[in-house]
């Protein structure tokens, strides 16, 4: 079992979108995913409502600083991955969620490079390590990247962050209509119709690469249902 928190104190960085992409991709591979929705806009819970039951996905709504540790404890045998969607705020919930995570992902918009909200989370992680000796693995994922942006421009951003010893995922989340539409239509990228959404295949490839990278970084032992789906075994460190 592993807990992954998406955190950026700046609103609109792409946290909720990334949460949904990762969760649905992990679920498709047979992992049991519980999403803890602490976003005051409840986008994930609304998506879950309009989608109906999605195999391997459970959503817990109205997560607070007090309820978060209780949910993690009570649900620990029911989930392979807990994915936490935080509000775009710097508050006690942020500190609590970070403290309970195996990995913190900081989505930062690759195009505008408006990294201030991300920097606050990185500072908090640094502070926990320096002052309390609590080291929580973390990475930045670049989000809403323009599909036409050159590899070179993106590499510059990655180099800049790695100069500051911040690890950046190889896969950036691209700006795609499918990633917006999924919240209106419900379901997953697999259940969307290619004739209704432009570049659905590219969106699926992107989400798949993102999830595979996260599965390598935060591996969880395969459940029976995942192996029966025929995916490659993931080496477990859990
Ligand atoms: N990769 C993407 N492609 C297309 N649209 C995106 C992408 N990522 C985010 N968006 C859009 O940007 C807006 C903000 O994204 P999202 O809700 O995921 O951010 P957030 O960090 O969760 O925001 P908040 O802090 O308000 O909870 C939404 O309208 C969403 O549909
Ligand atoms: Mg959100």
UniProtKB/TrEMBL annotation:
It comes from the Bacteria. Coiled coil: none annotated. Gene3D superfamilies: P-loop containing nucleotide triphosphate hydrolases. Pfam families: VirC1 (PF07015). Signal peptide: none annotated. PANTHER family: COBQ_COBB_MIND_PARA NUCLEOTIDE BINDING DOMAIN-CONTAINING PROTEIN, P-LOOP CONTAINING NUCLEOSIDE TRIPHOSPHATE HYDROLASE. This is Chromosome partitioning protein ParA. It comes from Rhizobium tubonense.
